[in-house]
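Progress against Task 2.4 (sequence-to-structure conversion) is shown through the following example record, which the project officer requested during the mid-term review.
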Amino acid sequence: MWLVIRVLINAFAIYLVAEIVPGIRVESLAAALGAALVLGLINAVVRPILVVLTLPITLLSLGLFLFVINAFCLWLTSEVVKGFEVHGFWPAVVGALLISTVSFVLNAFVGDRGRIVVITRVRRGPAPRGYREFP
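Structure tokens generated for the chain above:
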């Protein structure tokens, strides 16, 4: 179930970025879902290989080359999925950055089992000296 929720979150992120970034286009919700699935597979299989192969360039650029790798993965997804298009290098870079940011923020609220996580803080014991709570 958690995998389905994460794919839906990524599909929402792709659809949202397509509305914001000129040069990225999604024709339908099905295309966004397909792009989310394919992008997840590419990030799981192709991206680690690219990171290892380009490690010297990544180290010399202090990690900035990872943006190029992410843009390439997004472009590769657009080549595989019909109805999802990325036109140009800079829309791919900006789109990859925004998709990963939106996905990270939304996935932060979903636990590993697909449940929404609420973090609370419980204070135990007496209040420290000089500490005063305001209602």
